[in-house]
Amino acid sequence: MASSQCCANPPTLSPACGDGIVVDDLGGVRAYTAGSPNSKLAVLLISDIYGFEAPNLRKIADKIATSGFFVVVPDLLYDDPYSADNPERPFSIWIQSHSPDKGCQDAKPIIAALKNKGISAVGAAGFCWGGKVVLELAKSSEIEAAVLCHPSFVNVDDVKGVKCPISILGAENDHISPPELLKQFEQALSSTSEERHIVKIFPGVTHGWTVRHKADDAAAVKRAQEAHQDMLNWFIQHVKKEHVN
User: Fold this and answer.
1) For the chain, how many helices (H) and strands (E)?
2) H helices within the chain, ranges in order?
3) Which of 145, 210, 153, 223 lies closest to 181 in space, CA to CA?
4) How many CB atoms neighbour CB 190 within 10 A?
5) CA distances from 9 to 6, 63, 121 (A)
6) Could you give phi then psi for residue 34, rounded to 5 degrees?
7) Computed over its alpha carbons, how large is the radius of gyration of the chain?
8) Residues 41, 78, 131, CA angle at the centre, nearest 5°?
9) In what side-by-side order are the strands of the sheet with 121-127?
10) SS3 label, residue 184
11) Beta pairing partners, 168
């Protein structure tokens, strides 16, 4: 069963939101894209269980694009985001069709398509469900840098074998990836990976806050903006500065 935090404060999905465009086929999936397709640097944003039409997620994509990245938010849920309003498909049934491992495999052709178009370096950030997707990509040499925002479905063994710089941004009040678990992630990364890593715990916020904070919660909004900037800085440092010819 999913924690109640995993599904809390669902977004109002909007297929037309964002300053970018939706393309029908990028590596075999639909995707929201922002920024110049002529950029040599790309960032993938992998959604939570609510999918690629979440307005806050696309706002993050638009922000990252302003720093010179071509940003891709793929529809790895194939127009089937989780909905608590569908009693015939509770989370335990829905997730059987949308495992993070499948998401990782479906993301690889997107990265290949980007590199075939001339992209020289790719970073990836994952939110909740997407965090596990990005973690698996980080262990497969597919990406140059990774950011996990309040990841779900991740255990200590999962973080072993990371092959790129990785930043894990967690919440103080998270029942899915609590601070105690995040500290274990940090210990495992220190002992099993030579790549640069950071684990940061944001006070006073809950699981999912970077994309599902309440707009009238000024403190949560501020922490979300801080996390978004941390994410962007990570990509600038480990994708842009280290891979620009």
Assistant:
1) 9, 8
2) 4-7, 55-65, 91-94, 100-116, 129-138, 179-192, 209-212, 218-235, 241-243
3) 153
4) 11
5) 9, 22, 34
6) -140, 150
7) 16
8) 55
9) 21-26, 29-34, 70-74, 41-46, 121-127, 145-149, 166-173, 197-206
10) helix
11) 148, 199
Closest CA to 16 of 1, 3, 32: 32
Using alpha carbons only, give the angle 221, 222, 228 rounded to the nearest 5 degrees: 90
Q: How far apart are CA 20 and CA 39, in angstroms?
A: 15
User: What would the two tokens of residue 39 be?
Assistant: 């950029």
In whole angstroms, give the CA distance from residue 49 to residue 150. Answer: 13
Residues 8 and 20: beta-carbon distance below 8 Å: no
Tell me the residue type at 187: Q
pLDDT digits (tens, 9 = 90+) for 129-174: 999 999 999 999 899 999 999 999 999 999 999 999 999 999 999 9
Q: Report the predicted TM-score, pTM, of the whole model to 2 decimal places.
A: 0.96
> What is residue 214's predicted lDDT score, i.e. its pLDDT?
86
Compute the distance between CA of residue 87 and CA of residue 76 in angstroms, rounded to an integer.
22
Whole-number Å distance between alpha carbons of 44 and 67 = 14
CA dist 149 and 21 (Å) reads 24
Q: What are the φ/ψ torsions at residue 200 (nearest 5 degrees)?
A: -125, 130
Better-scored residue on pLDDT, 126 or 243: 126
Q: Would you give the distance in Å from CA 3 to the centre of its chain?
A: 19
Query: For residue 126, what are its two tokens?
Result: 């994952």
